[in-house]
Amino acid sequence: MMNFKRILFPVDFSAQSTAIVPFVRAMAKCFASEIVVLHVVAIPDSWPTSAGGEAQSLNVDQLHSEATATLDRFVVQEFAGARVSPRVTKGDVARQIVAYAHEQQIDLIMIPTHGYGPFRALLLGSVTAKVLHDVHCPVWTGVHAEQMTSHSPDRWKRVICAVETDERGKSVLRWAWQFAQQQNLELQLVHAVAGAEGMWTAESDPSMYRFLFDTAGERIAKLQSEVGTDLEIRLMAGSVSSAVRETALACDADVIVIGRGAVQSSFGRLNNACYSIIRSAPCPVISI
Q1: Does the domain at residues 6-143 carry the CATH identifier 3.40.50.620?
Q2: Prediction pTM value
């Protein structure tokens, strides 16, 4: 049985962090999880250690104390009645999140894709990108989470799983199937057919186009047979991110499940598209 015993929720006190609190609470309720609310006091690697080092050290201690007080207020205000452990640490934000997740055996990280403060750099913030690259547990992300209240886990009905035809695709499908079954959710599969968006189109070469779709269908059927599923699959031309987004919109998906192995290993079409899927997704994404 799938179980998220400990959910890590990194916060920077931005509007984006606050916006995903209902999602964190709902997910924790679904799985009876402990929520670890982590705030990192950002300290650059080049922090001064010269003659002014003592004063700088005192300043860091003050920042840590102020952050602890702010986090305590945040937890009382946003997580009343929930099982929560507030934590404050200091250092490089992304490294501290990754280190905490590894050391404390976190089962799921829930993080906004952008925000203010440490999350400001890009639409897919530099902190989030680093976390996605380095951690080994599933990561929940939500673009513009403040606009996605209809996708709270306590109201989920439908899951979209983007699959490839390799061994990694099999493990992603198996995870998505267990996740959906455990919560009585409908599961829909989508696969972007390689080559069908380039030189071989339905207009330029109909026979090759059909061959690509037939081959992809056979491979997905074999994969499903090995996993033990028999789910509807949408085979689509175009980029992976656009295929996933179109399917999610058409099916009114509540969450998308994708693999991100190649974010760490640099192989695979789907996994290389991980960041663009997350950026364009109309609903939260869980990447494994």
Answers
A1: yes
A2: 0.86
